[in-house]
């Protein structure tokens, strides 16, 4: 895994995950074969720990507030970090579908308002 420039991190990033290692290798292979490949994936990490599925998408920041969706007590929740109306990162425990829709929002530079994110009656995949 290389320490590389990453626009999502706002600088250099060393992302030690299997997905990043795989995608970097694909990009390097294409470049060696003569293709012009820019590698700038959204950082993504996941781990299964006993009965917990933990996923992090984007680059979390201690300086940003989080919007909670779900309940830590119930063992299924996501925390969305937003800055200037754009989604910056998501931490999810046992709610992988939130990561899937969040990836789309990160790529589009959009995000629903915090009150919509927090409302579990709203289906995020329909927004």
Features:
single chain; 2 domains; five-stranded antiparallel β-sheet; two-stranded antiparallel sheet; FAD/NAD-bd_sf
Compact description:
The protein has three helices and seven strands.
Summarize the structure in words.
By secondary structure, the chain is an alpha+beta fold. It has two domains: 41 residues, no CATH class; 84 residues, Enolase-like, domain 1 (2-Layer Sandwich). The chain has three helices and seven strands, in the order E-E-H-E-E-E-E-E-H-H. A five-stranded antiparallel β-sheet has the order 3-4-7-6-5. A hairpin with a 4-residue loop joins strand 1 and strand 2. The radius of gyration is 16 Å and the shape is globular. It starts with a strand and ends in a 9-residue tail after the last helix. The mean pLDDT is 91.
Helix content: 25-40%
Name of the CATH first level of the largest domain: Alpha Beta
Gap between N and C termini: 35 Å
What percent strand? 25-35%
- How many structural units, i.e. domains? 2
> CATH superfamily assignment of the largest domain?
FAD/NAD-linked reductase, C-terminal dimerisation domain
Low-confidence stretches: none
Number of strands: 7
**Coarse morphology:** globular
Major β-sheet strand ordering: 3-4-7-6-5
- Say what the CATH topology of the largest domain is: Enolase-like, domain 1
Number of helices: 3
Q: From the coordinates shown, what is the CATH architecture of the largest domain?
A: 2-Layer Sandwich
What's the overall average pLDDT, rounded?
91
Order of helices and strands: EEHEEEEEHH
What structural class do helix, strand and pairing data support? alpha+beta
Radius of gyration of CA atoms, rounded to a whole number: 16 Å
Largest sheet, described in full?
A: 5 strands, antiparallel
């Amino acid at each position: 895994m290389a320490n590389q420039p990453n626009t999502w991190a706002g600088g250099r990033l060393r992302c030690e995950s299997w997905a990043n290692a795989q995608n970097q290798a694909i990009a390097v292979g294409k470049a060696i074969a003569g293709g012009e490949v820019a590698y700038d994936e959204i950082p993504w990490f996941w781990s299964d720990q006993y009965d917990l599925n933990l996923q992090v998408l984007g680059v979390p920041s201690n300086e940003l507030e989080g919007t909670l969706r779900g309940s830590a007590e119930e063992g299924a929740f996501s925390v969305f970090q937003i800055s200037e109306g754009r989604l910056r990162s998501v931490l999810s425990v046992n709610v992988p579908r939130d990561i899937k829709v969040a990836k789309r929002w990160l790529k589009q530079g959009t995000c629903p308002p915090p009150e919509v994110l927090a409302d579990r009656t709203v289906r995020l995949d329909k927004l």
